[in-house]
Amino acid sequence: MSRDLNNAAQDKMALALIQSSATSDIAANLTKACARIEQAASDGAELVCLQELFVAPYPCQGEVAERFDWAEPIPGPTSEALCKLAASKNIAIVGSVFEERAKGLYHNTVVVIDAGGEIVGRYRKMHIPDDPLYQEKYYFTPGDTGFVSIPTRFANVGPLVCWDQWFPEAARLASLAGAQVLVYPTAIGWQFDETPEEDAAQHDAWETVQRAHAIANGVFVASINRVGQEDGIRFWGQSFVADPFGRVLARASSEKEETLLVECDLGLIEKVRRDWPFLRDRRIDAYGDLTKRLRDE
Prior knowledge:
Layout: E1 12-19, H1 26-42, E2 47-50, H2 77-89, E3 92-102, E4 105-113, E5 119-124, E6 130-131, E7 134-135, E8 150-151, E9 156-159, H3 168-176, E10 181-185, E11 189-190, H4 196-217, E12 220-224, E13 227-230, E14 233-236, E15 240-242, E16 248-251, E17 258-265, H5 267-275
Parallel strand pairs: 1-2, 2-3, 9-10, 10-12
Antiparallel strand pairs: 1-17, 3-4, 4-5, 6-7, 8-9, 11-14, 12-15, 13-14, 15-16
Helix pairs in contact: 1-2, 3-4
């Protein structure tokens, strides 16, 4: 059942993004995250979002078999801790888990937990990168959930993960499924010694493409990134929330842990879509070639 886009009583929603660093102490990372979720709830947050694989260091900078030990089933310790928090604080939570689906079968998975404390949906990362220091194909099987919208008490969530950020098809399909907020748990940063200009250009491209998804689909976008240095990556933080016209409502620091608390007026979705009717004017009869790797010559 989807949340009603036209119910004015549901228009205002308090969204929290928890930007954090991580150490090799998984229990300590989870404890810290739970404490920060509690604080966000005390500050008025209704939907709380965590960064990609938040309970451990980003595992994919090398192919290390022992790091599969960081994976866990769903339900499991991380999701159960988040479920208890959601129930006790009457909030919804978007959490990212290194999922052990079966022995030898792992996914990069988002769980969406509603205010009653139940898991109401999951998304398994569909686009899996294989780049220097981002060797995810070694760890993760590509997702099989498709691009989904998951209703919570406060908003319909379109969960996507990191590399998914660069693909307009993912944002479009989640939005067409009914998502009001595209949520991107993320682990991205600078890999090598580059010039300040190159660093700035990389970050600008990352933020710009996501703001474009907000504009093209008339939805909110929430991107939650890591911060700090882990081995060869300097995670650039700068988590942000953009409204349905791509305006950045809040942006976190590039250097420190931070919680963003942003009021989102979900009524803007209808207003922006009426003023900029991209969904109306789509030529769905002419897009068949999008399902091909390249157009036939």
